[in-house]
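Quick note —
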Amino acid sequence: MSVLLKNGTYIDYKTLDFSQVDILASESGIEILQRGSSVLADKTIDCSGKYITHSFADGYMRPEYIFVPSSKYFIAQKTPYFKFLSDVLWKYSQNLDEDLLRASAMFSALQAVKNGCTFAIVRLEAPAIIEKSFEIVEQEFNRFGVSTLISYATGEINGYVKAEKALQANADYVKKSQGLMGIDASFLAGKELLEEVVSVCKQVGVGALINAGEDHIDEANTIRDYKTTAVQRLYDSGIMDFSSTILANCNVISGIERSCIKFKPCWTAENPIGNLQNAVSPFSSQWLDDNIFYGTDYTGENLVATTKMSYFKALGTENAISTMDAYQRLRAIHRYIEINGFKGDGQNNLIVFENPLPMELNKNNFVVQLIFGAKPHGITAVVSDGKLIVDNSMLLLADVAEIENFCRQQINRIIC
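Predicted structure written out below.
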């Protein structure tokens, strides 16, 4: 299927150059054409007065938890963080079955597409259906037009036998599908488990997604049990040598740990809204360089709101960042995907959006307006891998009413 986007203003997300062109998107890529070019396409969309740019990618998503605030396990007062983990998230995950996970994946994918996101790095945790969880999430996300990079949060909170089962399922998945290995957190992975994950990474040639220093509990317990800090332990294991390894959060890490990250090819996923929701320490990018991108965690938020939150939370602190820094983090994930050869984020992933402000956007004001004013919340079309998946703000690949009805049925099961 080919899609011709006519009469719009194309924004190159790398250079921020604006051009008045037509875009022909197909499964093989895009062609940038002179306005008014006569070409055949399966679908033509008039983008007059609208803007076209590359779609978004989410660097850290936990779809299985998107309904947690609606569940009987949810506690509004969520400090200390470990209590929230044990009394809410872990209890909730124990009760995830296939239908509830499928509904969670459906709704997360639906929110992603509505927000112009066509790629998601997913961290899973579903102890009762470990093997099935990969298939369910990949199937539902792909059905909506969202490419995935999936890992499982392997840890020993439910014992070593369960951890081994998760490790094997994750290893089997990455050997046949696009994915990462996963570790819940340093303090939840014993010596043997960490060594086994690193061994699989070396065998398959992919890195791992790991919560690192999200909260003081990770640092304190790692120091108690292994006489070193969380990031230093991961550094010593060799898992940070992979350019596809992602250390998520890194909120409470030390200066030495920051140096460990700075001189390795791994990446950091910042989750500003998720961190605020979980009442953990704010993220600091001090000494971490440019390998930082954003995730939405289980909030279902859009990535522009995430970018805004990152920028404003850092204002007035020693870790303040510029609007361009915030934008670069929003877009850094595309570099991560390209460097590591993952599929699903080519040039033929596009969004068409309206400008809500009574002014023209241009190269000089776009980023500032993205942070302070204009944002692509009026997304009217989304193209994923050259296929039109949203037109006139309506999802084309699934029945939204049917999805929402199924989700309501599953939510009703966990309310009481």
